[in-house]
Design a protein that fits this description.
Helix content: under 10%
Radius of gyration: 24 Å
Distance between the termini: 40 Å
Largest sheet: 6 strands, mixed
Shape: globular
Number of strands: 42
Structural class: mainly beta
Strand order of the largest sheet: 3-1-32-31-30-29
Number of helices: 1
Length: 674
């Protein structure tokens, strides 16, 4: 829970522990003498070798069946509403499995000391797995400047601030249409003006989405009042406010979440994506009486019709205790309410573990995002809204669809009622992520020390309990999706297989470990990512052995010319990039507003708030790289995790495949765009 990690005061112990699967008991693990060494003197007492198999990486061919036109039977234990789904008509490229965004080329041009740096997107459907199939023609002022075959960036040594650059894709010998030409930036960032909803508000977390259907990634921005509260603290707050802002700086709308939902890191979690396939993103959040949509109107559909919007349901601790709770979908273009239903898991004191009916710390812990889970037990490749309530004790996860104007229950997982689900109770973190852990074309949801199947049934749990920070990706090469999590109650941290919940290593002891990060961050060992925290030091994610590369304990960003990921604290970019005048968010967490592949090539942009809260800055790299990867926003794992990034204790997104100097070729993504 702490914002900063302290040192270990006593030696940690690494244990393999058992794995809970399908609700069974925890079984004891085997013992091995091999493994890593704890930097503070702990001893590895058990572990066993990592499994040799693992799920296929995401992005490959979809399972047979692909598109579903009618509802299939739900898997055992899953709770479904309207079964089945029909894929929308494809309007862009690709003919694969996952519905993705129809992005523009995202060309960015920046004046640098050696000329003009130009970067652009490779779309996922332009990557065939054969490098020679795809190249890009770069035009300057209407004249072909270069045919680029090995990257999606270029340094034009003779470029000027008035140069106009466009890009075409040449796919298997056929040249496609030209992109639009951006204005050359005079500095390394784009400034997006924003307007605070009031003097007490600061720009906070954000999530991207194409709000107006023009192919550009816009920003859904949460505003944090100065009196926002952690769920463990008492007191009322000013209402949470959320704005839709285009990347060109037009403020489209602002939603007032209202007095009956408190402002804080654990309360309002934003599901942002194009859920109905109309080419424009929607926003889904928890709402209540008093919520006003982006047109300024109180909610009025479904259970919100006729609600008493003046009623204050807040209890003595400042949280709403009882009263209506809803889930609402808003238009990304206008902020207008599109649909409202009852929130899938209502409050009620029972099973949350709060000591009295006047407290709601454990019951008012939320996470949210989106994922391509199963519809009626079938992998359709269509997105669902994901909303989580509870993780200290009772853990619930809900998947809803919004299609054809109807907001409908897909499935609900509840540790108190789903068959076998009791093993997931208490096995959640202050964050949540999603990935396809078994290669069946549908995403599992990973709340922390447990994995929920893509059909809403229980999959597995480690049994280690609650943690604060989590990273999900190919942290052990060739072993599918792994989870690195730091432990609050048990201390230390672990890396485990997301499909089986079997440990690669598990360190315990030393008290609450509040921060940790994992990725391939330094020269040398690529046998595993670095799993790093101040409690455990730097450990190989696959073995637990001590390593040198330090992934830090905060954020990460793809920024440099090489393939190593860099550490990021608040808004301090690698290489001494000047970010003066900007600030981090969320107190001691000191996280950026957003990191994501927003523009240019596959590397990430930093979205930072100006300290004055008068603008957001989008920083882009200008380091020329020879590594070509399709836009990470067309990797399904990364795209879903970018949305989960803003949830509770913010964590950076990871792709579904390893990026490092000796990486395997990226998997060919199976997608279509809308």
């Amino acid at each position: 829970m702490n914002g900063t990690g302290g040192a270990i005061t006593s030696g940690g112990v690494v244990t393999s522990g058992g794995v809970v699967t399908s609700g069974g008991a925890i079984t004891s693990g085997g013992v091995t003498t091999s493994g890593g060494v704890i930097t503070s003197g702990g001893v590895i007492t058990s572990g066993g070798a990592p499994r040799t198999g693992g799920a296929p990486r995401t992005g490959g061919a979809p399972p047979s069946g692909g598109m579903v036109t009618s509802g299939g039977a739900p898997s055992e234990g899953g709770v479904t509403g309207q079964g089945g789904a029909t894929k929308p008509t494809v309007t862009g490229g690709g003919s694969g499995h996952y519905q993705m965004e129809n992005l523009d080329r995202g060309v960015v041009a920046v004046k640098v000391s050696g000329g003009v740096y130009v970067g652009w997107r490779m779309f996922g459907y332009e990557y065939t797995g054969t490098d020679s199939d795809t190249s890009y023609n770069l035009y300057k002022d209407g004249t072909k400047l270069a045919n680029v075959t090995d990257s999606t960036n270029y340094l034009d040594a003779s470029g000027t601030s008035s140069s106009k650059y466009t890009v075409t894709c040449v796919l298997k010998g056929t040249e496609g249409p030209q992109s639009t030409a951006p204005t050359v930036w005079s500095q390394q960032y784009l400034s997006i003006p924003i307007t605070s909803p009031g003097g007490s508000y600061s720009a906070n977390d954000a999530s991207p989405g194409d709000l107006d259907g023009d192919g550009k990634l816009d920003i859904v921005l949460k505003w944090d009042p100065s009196n926002s509260k952690d769920s463990a603290s008492s007191g009322t707050t000013d209402p949470c406010m959320i704005s839709g802002i285009t990347i060109t700086g037009k403020q489209l709308w602002t939603i007032n979440v209202g007095m009956n939902i408190r402002s804080g890191a654990h309360d309002t979690q934003m599901s942002v994506f194009d859920f109905d396939g109309d080419g424009k993103a929607e926003l889904a959040i928890k709402t209540a009486p008093g919520t006003k949509d982006g047109t300024g109107a109180f909610l009025k559909t479904g259970p919100a019709a006729g609600a008493d919007n003046a009623h204050d349901y807040r209890g003595p601790n400042g949280m709403a205790l009882g009263g209506p709770e809803w889930l609402t979908v808003f238009s990304g273009a206008t902020g207008a309410e599109l649909a409202t239903v009852d929130y899938p898991i209502p409050w009620g004191q029972a099973n949350w573990g709060d000591p009295s009916a006047t407290q709601a710390n454990r019951s008012h812990r939320y996470n949210g995002g989106f994922a391509w889970v199963k519809d009626g037990g079938v992998a359709t490749g269509l997105p669902s809204i994901i909303q989580q309530r509870g993780y200290y004790t009772r853990l619930t996860m809900s998947a809803y669809t919004f299609r054809g104007g109807v907001l409908a229950k897909n499935w609900v997982f509840d540790s108190s009622s789903t068959p076998g689900g009791s093993a997931a109770a208490g096995q959640g973190d202050h964050s949540c992520m999603a990935a396809d852990v078994d290669g069946d074309g549908a995403f599992e949801i990973i709340p922390g020390a447990s994995t929920i199947n893509s059909d809403g049934t229980f999959r597995c749990a480690t049994g280690i309990g609650h943690g604060d920070a989590m990273h999900v990706g190919e942290l052990v090469p060739g072993k599918g999706i792994s989870v690195y999590s730091v432990h609050e109650t048990a201390g230390g941290g672990d890396c485990h297989d997301a499909s089986t919940c079997k440990y690669y290593f598990n360190v315990t002891g030393g008290g609450d470990n509040g921060r940790g990060a994992a990725d391939y961050v330094g020269v040398g060992d690529e046998t595993g990512a670095s799993c790093s925290s101040s409690h455990t030091g730097n450990l190989n994610c696959g073995t637990g052995a001590t390593v040198t590369p330090n992934a830090g304990s905060n954020f990460l960003i793809y920024w440099n010319a090489d393939e190593w990921r860099s550490t990021l604290n608040a808004t301090s970019l690698p290489g001494g990039v000047d970010t003066s005048g900007t600030s981090g968010c969320n107190g001691t967490k000191n996280t950026p507003t957003l990191t994501a592949d927003m523009l240019g090539d596959w590397r990430e942009e930093l979205v930072a708030r100006e300290t004055s809260n008068g603008a957001l800055r989008v920083y882009t790299t200008t380091a020329v790289t020879k590594r070509r990867i399709y836009t990470l926003m067309h990797d399904p794992t990364y795209r879903a995790q970018v949305n989960f990034e803003q949830s509770s204790y913010n964590q950076p997104p990871h792709p579904g495949f390893r990026i490092s100097p000796n990486m395997d070729p990226p998997p060919v993504p199976s997608l279509f765009v809308k």
